[in-house]
Amino acid sequence: MTKIHVRDFDFFYGASKVLHGISMDMPDKQVTALIGPSGCGKSTFLRSINRMNDIIPDARHDGLIEIDGKNVYGGGTDAVELRRRVGMVFQKSNPFPKSIFDNVAYGLKIGGMRNRRQLNEIVEKSLTRAALWDEVKDRLQTSAFALSGGQQQRLCIARALAVDPEILLMDEPASALDPIATAKIEELIYELKDNFTIVIVTHNMQQAARVSDRTAFFMLGKLVEYSETKTIFMNPKQKMTEDYVTGRFG
Amino acid sequence: MTRRSSDDRFFRLATGAVAALVLLIVIGIGFELTRQSTMSIRKFGFSFWTGTTWDPVSGDFGARPFIWGTLYSSVLALLLAAPVALGIAIYISELSPRMLRQPLAYLTELLAAIPSIVYGLWGVFVLVPIIRKLELATPDFLKKIPLFKGPPLGVGMLAAAVILAIMVVPFTSSVAREILKNVPSAQREAAYALGATRWEAIKVAVGYGKSGIIGAIMLGFGRALGETMAVTMVIGNNPQVSASLYAPQYTMSAVIANEFTEAADELYLHALIEIGLLLFIITIGVNMISRLLIWSMKARANRKAISMPMLADEAVPA
Q1: What distance in Å separates residue B98's CA from the closest CA in chain A?
Q2: What is the distance between the alpha carbons of residues B102 and B115, in angstroms, rounded to a whole number?
Q3: If B212 and its partner were Cys, which of A15, A112, B179, B206 is the partner (CB 3.0–4.6 Å)?
Q4: Which domain holds residue B94?
Q5: Model confidence at A5, in pLDDT bands (50, 70, 90)?
């Protein structure tokens, strides 16, 4: 079943066009990886899905992105509401200068939840889902900045999960982490896809091959090839895709 | 030794010497103020801080009304200025259209360039009459509260606080703006991605820069403590410890400015210089606290370097 439906999507920063006619359908409760060389537009595309690009001045778009058949940029869609349904994890972990608990509870609190018991429950559940609970359960009131880089990134994932989104967008979530922390994040992605639709941008092709069900290869703002991950890596249709995944350029 | 490393050493020594000079000047000022007020320090000791009489004729000096006047007017100014300055900083750094940002920042900083005496004149001819009208219109039930007791003179604590607040706003807002500018955009993005509204994202940015913003407010406080001319012209120059906003009072810097030339005998002169010493100590203390707050903020935002404008030094009265 299609969760995210994209047709002829263009994106511009001022006069320069950075995405050219992207069309793709991302299935529900699967992991879709976006790969491609730096500057190919994959991050811009990812940020278009939850309208994070709205806050950039001089940015505009053309074409259609739908989630569950509803136009993301349509008049009836509120960007604030949308972002609660489409969570995001960034390249560099960006916890707030608050306690571990308050970081995870932030999204709930701005959503109006005040009930302490409910908050405790969801914070625990989110941290557990992000495979961080056991490491932090005795120090929920300490600053999030005291955690290691990998733990901070899992905290950011827990924070995104707490508002119970349907889709999780991940922008190179492990690129700033060491191999062990990276492996933990990948494991986590694998577990999360039972409940969430995940779109992940990555520079690491092994990572794309390991965690994703489908892979899209972007090049110079165009979608070159989009298919089952296996096909992209074993039997790509396009010469350019083959060259990229075999490391001949990139 | 290579030429390069000897250059390095020379450069380090030269800049080090200049830096040491600053420290030397501060120590020198402190030393000289103490030396020139020994007579008054010996005669009154600590009771100089607490005494309330200021009688040059009988040679009895106590600084409490002046310390009170300085602190009270500065705190009031702070209460008035902080929300306005923060509002300006938030508007310029977070909300205003890009094109307006520079001009607005420049205009607020222009306020800081107006000479103190000009503020004073404006205070005497414009602000004081307005405040007098306000005081005359005070409803009776308010007059029972100590805050609003006293004759409606126009000149007094309220006029001083308002004028100080106006003078402090550009300093506080430009430092606060700098702090907000240096809050990583990842913080705002994190908030937006969790469904924050623009206002909630701004609250996150302000929260991130909290200690720095408190530091900015304290810098403004330091500036208010030392401000002389404009306050002297509108505060009424009457040494009394009063909570009333309408009462004419006096500040430390104002008494020095007004009476320095009249101080005929030596004890009088020493007492005035000791007031200068107290002001020096209080201002340095306030500035140190505000610096510490800003440093703690910098240490937290360690990844991103923050260049802080050199405003703290101007807050030390010359």
Answers
A1: 9
A2: 23
A3: B179
A4: 65-265
A5: very high
Backbone angles phi, psi at A14, to 5 degrees: 60, -120
Whether B311 is in a domain gets the answer: no
User: Is the minimum CB–CB distance between A165 and chain B shorter than 8 Å?
Assistant: no
Using CB atoms, which residue from A97, A106, A111 is nearest to B300? A97
Q: Tell me if B305 is assigned to some domain.
A: no
* Number of structural domains found in chain B: 1
Residue B307 confidence class, pLDDT cut points 50, 70, 90? very low
ipTM of the complex: 0.91
State pTM to two decimals.
0.81
CB contact at 8 A, B60 and B249: no
Pairing relation of β-strands A86-89 and A16-27?
unpaired
Q: Which amino acid, B245?
A: L
Strands A59-67 and A31-35: unpaired
Contact A163 B186 (CB under 8 A): no
Q: For residues A107 and A81, what is the distance between their CA atoms, to the nearest angstrom?
A: 12
State whether B300 and A110 contact (CB < 8 Å): no
Candidates A50, A88, A97; nearest CB to B208: A97
Give A50's contacts in chain B (Cβ within 8 Å). Answer: 193
Residue with structure tokens 């916890």?
Answer: A95
Q: Is residue B174 situated within a structural domain? A: yes
Helix, strand or coil, per DSSP, at residue A75: coil
**Shortest CA gap B171–chain A (Å):** 26
CA atoms within 13 A on the CB side of B132: 13
User: Best of A49, A96, A167 to disrupt the B interface by mutation (most B CBs within 10 Å)?
Assistant: A96
B298 domain-assigned: no
* pLDDT > 90? residue B31: yes
Positive or negative, the CA dihedral A78, A84, A85, A86 is positive
